């Protein structure tokens, strides 16, 4: 059981919808034709069942078991809890609008996602008593993965990207005359991805930006505005807004995060064992087996 929603799972969902649709049609009804040769609904149905039937049915069976276990154990999941998890996905995908677009492209809806989240949170409650993470496990994990928790040197910056050097020179002159950086972003920058945020690029480490841009940004003081920096993208005027030095990870500061990581890993492992047990307990009649 994985907390992450795998949008690729929509294949199975789509297959279900297609199979249901095909069931509503006459078996001999044509769904397509090639040079007058019909492809009948029955052929479509058989192909869908052969390709996706067992996988889709297995998913439906496990979902039904979770639903029955929720009822049996009086498990409830609040909308607030679902909304809190949904906010994490919005952040991961760059905002609610971007997440919605991803869902639409995958053939899913927010309702589908909310149902997945509700089921996950319910399973989390069902498995809670079976899972524990010890201090020793957390400390061992930290020592084995310490470098991944180290904080690299980072710079936060915003920029104005122009197509020509002449435009970049105009921007520098206007900045020297006291015009606001964000106003000049709107008027000059061709970086459409950062115009709305005033040119903000967020924080980045070494190796994430093109070389000339990176060299300039990491050599500047906070609040300093660069001269013109030419890259393959055009001409940049950079302002550094923050600079943090590299720091080694401190166990106490990441202990909670490590605990959550280990817990989620155990949930995934324990879910499979739990589901196997439940499938043996329930009377399941699978006609596709």
From TrEMBL:
<dbReference type="InterPro" id="IPR050245">
    <property type="entry name" value="PrsA_foldase"/>
</dbReference>
<dbReference type="InterPro" id="IPR000297">
    <property type="entry name" value="PPIase_PpiC"/>
</dbReference>
<dbReference type="Pfam" id="PF13624">
    <property type="entry name" value="SurA_N_3"/>
</dbReference>
<feature type="domain" description="PpiC">
    <location>
        <begin position="152"/>
        <end position="242"/>
    </location>
</feature>
<keyword id="KW-0413">Isomerase</keyword>
<keyword id="KW-0697">Rotamase</keyword>
<dbReference type="Pfam" id="PF13616">
    <property type="entry name" value="Rotamase_3"/>
</dbReference>
<dbReference type="InterPro" id="IPR046357">
    <property type="entry name" value="PPIase_dom_sf"/>
</dbReference>
<protein>
    <submittedName>
        <fullName>Foldase</fullName>
    </submittedName>
</protein>
<dbReference type="GO" id="GO:0003755">
    <property type="term" value="F:peptidyl-prolyl cis-trans isomerase activity"/>
</dbReference>
């Amino acid at each position: 059981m994985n907390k992450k929603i795998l949008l690729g799972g929509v294949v199975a969902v789509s297959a279900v919808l297609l199979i249901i649709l095909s069931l509503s049609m006459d078996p001999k009804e044509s769904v397509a034709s090639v040079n007058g040769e019909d492809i009948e609904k029955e052929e479509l149905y058989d192909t869908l069942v052969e390709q996706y039937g067992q996988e889709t049915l297995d998913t439906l069976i496990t979902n039904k078991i979770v639903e029955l276990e929720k009822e049996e154990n009086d498990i409830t999941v609040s909308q607030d809890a679902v909304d809190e998890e949904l906010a994490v996905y919005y952040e991961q995908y760059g905002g609610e609008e971007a997440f919605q677009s991803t869902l639409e492209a995958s053939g899913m809806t927010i309702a589908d996602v909310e149902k997945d989240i509700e089921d996950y949170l319910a399973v989390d409650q069902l498995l809670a008593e079976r899972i524990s993470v010890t201090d020793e496990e957390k400390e061992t994990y930290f020592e084995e993965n310490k470098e991944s928790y180290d904080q690299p040197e980072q710079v936060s910056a915003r920029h104005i990207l122009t197509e020509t050097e002449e435009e970049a020179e105009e921007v520098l002159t206007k900045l020297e005359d006291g015009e606001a950086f964000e106003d000049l972003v709107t008027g000059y920058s061709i970086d459409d991805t950062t115009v709305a945020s005033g040119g903000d690029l967020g924080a980045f480490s070494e190796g994430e930006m093109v070389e000339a841009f990176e060299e300039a940004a990491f050599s500047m003081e906070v609040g300093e505005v660069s001269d013109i920096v030419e890259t393959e993208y055009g001409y940049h005027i950079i302002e550094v807004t923050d600079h943090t030095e590299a720091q080694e990870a401190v166990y106490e500061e990441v202990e909670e995060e490590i605990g959550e990581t280990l817990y989620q890993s155990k949930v995934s492992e324990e879910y499979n064992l739990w589901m196997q047990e439940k499938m043996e307990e329930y009377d399941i009649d699978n006609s596709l087996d």
